[in-house]
Design a protein that fits this description.
Blueprint (H helix, E strand, L loop, with lengths): L1 H17 L10 H9 L1 H23 L1 H22 L7 H16 L1
């Protein structure tokens, strides 16, 4: 449950980061074209993903601990996105492998 919350928070923050006007972005052409042409859709998806992440943490941990955990997850994910996203060292394989490992550890 926490892994799913981290994944949705990561994707929501990434959508907001990619639609930012202030950030200097270096992204592949297909992704740049999609985010430039569908900016409102990407921001709406980002809001939905962040709210679902918050709802999952509150549902799993309770109101007080859930809000605090969501704030911690958001800070962690925000730092990772800002540090790793510009250098494009994070591809789909590493994301799936990392979150798969997190899910296995959570289930054990």
């Amino acid at each position: 449950m926490i892994t799913l919350s981290i994944i949705s928070c990561f994707l929501g923050f990434e959508f907001f980061y990619q639609t930012s006007k202030k950030a200097i972005l270096s992204r592949p052409d297909k992704m740049a074209a999609w985010f430039n042409s569908n900016e409102k859709t990407a921001q709406s998806l980002g809001v939905i993903l962040l709210l679902s992440s918050m709802a999952l943490t509150i549902f799993h941990l309770g109101i007080g601990a859930g809000v605090f955990a969501f704030a911690c997850i958001l800070m962690m994910v925000g730092s990772l996105v800002v540090l790793i996203s510009p250098i494009w060292k994070l591809n789909g394989f590493w994301l799936v492998a990392g979150f798969g490992l997190m899910f296995l550890i959570e289930m054990l």
